[in-house]
Amino acid sequence: xxxxxxxxxxxxxxxxxLFVEQGVHxxxxxxxxxxxxxxxxxxxxxxxxxxxxxxxxxxxxxTEVRSRIETALASxxxxxxxxxxxxxxxxxxxxxQPLVFRFVLLVQHELAKSLPTDLRMPQDVITEIFAQxxxxxxxxxxxALLAAAVIGLFLETAIFVLYGRLPGPMSRYVEPVxxxxxxVLDAK
Amino acid sequence: xxxxxxxxxxxxxxxxxLFVEQGVHxxxxxxxxxxxxxxxxxxxxxxxxxxxxxxxxxxxxxTEVRSRIETALASxxxxxxxxxxxxxxxxxxxxxQPLVFRFVLLVQHELAKSLPTDLRMPQDVITEIFAQxxxxxxxxxxxALLAAAVIGLFLETAIFVLYGRLPGPMSRYVEPVxxxxxxVLDAK
Amino acid sequence: xxxxxxxxxxxxxxxxxLFVEQGVHxxxxxxxxxxxxxxxxxxxxxxxxxxxxxxxxxxxxxTEVRSRIETALASxxxxxxxxxxxxxxxxxxxxxQPLVFRFVLLVQHELAKSLPTDLRMPQDVITEIFAQxxxxxxxxxxxALLAAAVIGLFLETAIFVLYGRLPGPMSRYVEPVxxxxxxVLDAK
Amino acid sequence: xxxxxxxxxxxxxxxxxLFVEQGVHxxxxxxxxxxxxxxxxxxxxxxxxxxxxxxxxxxxxxTEVRSRIETALASxxxxxxxxxxxxxxxxxxxxxQPLVFRFVLLVQHELAKSLPTDLRMPQDVITEIFAQxxxxxxxxxxxALLAAAVIGLFLETAIFVLYGRLPGPMSRYVEPVxxxxxxVLDAK
DNA sequence: AATGAATGAGATTTCATTCAT
DNA sequence: AATGAATGAAATCTCATTCAT
Lengths: 188, 188, 188, 188
Prior knowledge:
Four copies of one chain form a homotetramer.
Chain A: H1 8-22, H2 29-36, H3 40-46, H4 50-74, H5 79-96, H6 98-107, H7 122-135, H8 143-162, H9 174-185
Chain A binds a DNA duplex (21 and 21 nucleotides) through helix 3.
């Protein structure tokens, strides 16, 4: 049996931190390896290159976020409760693991190309929920448009907190954001 | 009278196009010069360095967007009409000059550091409008939070169109987005 | 009795294939190990390093080729018969074990330095044969020059087949090449 | 007007020398730049990468060799005279510009892939000559096979000189090689 | 015994910027 | 004035080899 990987997790942690702090392009392999306490070459045993590392991190954390949302939404029956639960789940994540949330948020546009096209995104989850609710007659409108509105409302609030335009912690906005979301949805 | 500079505009156009397509970090001086049909050194005649070019472009276009919004908002008295005018102004810009809109939208996070901190942003404009409306008793709430919600709702719709999750043109969403914005604001 | 090594043969086969396809310098240890279905470290259990593997492969296969030639030449008395037998032996090898032939052929220049200088080469065998024949008065000329001519004539035909300039199989050229060789030698 | 290129020719000369001495794989960009007295980056203004430099050098010198052969062949009417002129032209090149000849000779197999498929090779020239001579009834046989035989005979003699198996200068072999070539061709 | 992780050294290549003409 | 050549520094990545389990 070969020795167990000792650099993999430190590399992931270092990369996440530095990508959030300095941006993906602003962070070099050197930086990551130094912070992880290993050689630069070690990175290449675990990921084909820097881009693959970024994509793997993004997919991993995006999937985590998506799962949280799915779990939260499935835990409630009524639309308002679903929205509140989903919002709470994400905003708590923001407070508990700010790096994960920020990474997913900040990196998304840099990756459009190199992602698998069949990756299920949080947007898909929200859009489907709204399609269901429309089918049930609870709300009206175009599912994708409602999803865009709700997600934007929800995310930009987090960005305002991120850039200091609104004071933290994030969780304090669960209630007011949920209310605004429900007004947008204009549910019966 | 001095003859007009020949390389300046082509360089700006090329830079805008390439920054949107490949990102700022992904675009090199050689790329820009080649697309502009001039030499690499020419760029340094007009801007101190690449960073200055990026900042100048961003400030110019952001200012344009902000001015459009200010003009549109000032052209109307009532809150609903203001929102509609501002939304229409921006979404028309999206359809007419998609590069400008995308540049301002996509490049913002890449630039957080290297920008003057006193730059007046569209967010400031919106936040002030809401502060005024609150002072007038037309709406209630925290101005920055309302601004975050409205801007997010408005922008994410554009991002959905950008990535093909919603069909274009952008201008078709002026009315429904305005309606959702007004529901968020819950104006009297 | 010790159990037989399990990785040795797969490594040799994989190395041979990859060296022929990609060149010695273009083939890495990881490539070889992956193709052989074993670990990279396994290679170092059987050879001191990559260079030693290359040299061992080359010497083994070159010796095989040389032995075939020696055996074939020794099996006949008359010069024409010798040439035909040697040619047939090699061209049959080409058809039966194309990798071996190509390896010896293509890799030789890549290796000039790292080989033992006292390695007996096919060229030496041919040169000696011609020296004998000259001593016997059957042919005239400079042995090394005749060897160069005959070997070149013989090898370049194989290279033409290798690159598709002449159709295979190689064995179809035994007779015409032998005839040309005999005309070059101008034997009595 | 920009400054004239000062590094291009020194880079070509250095590359040719080092490739012949140490092999293409054994020669690094560093080596080349140091020998040329310029920076490593200078190379990339003139060629896209190392491979492109190798290919450009090969094509340039191969074309030169091919032109010499074509000129020599065209300068004579009779087959024997053509062969002698072609052989003399190449062997003189070997003596005068040994680097060029060795480079073309040693590098050929490393490049099979990255070459334009429509590159006219010396082999094509020889094959066509023999096809013509066959059409004229001067010789008989398969043009490509005769070309392989003649080229191999001719080249391997040079390789023997290159590796010290035959004494130089190369030009001393013009006459005996031409005679052997004519015996191979068995011309009327 | 055998693995796959880890590494140091070095390779190629990119880049924004400066320079010489 | 304007070009394209040249550059130093750094980035990414590769490689043969050694190490720890």
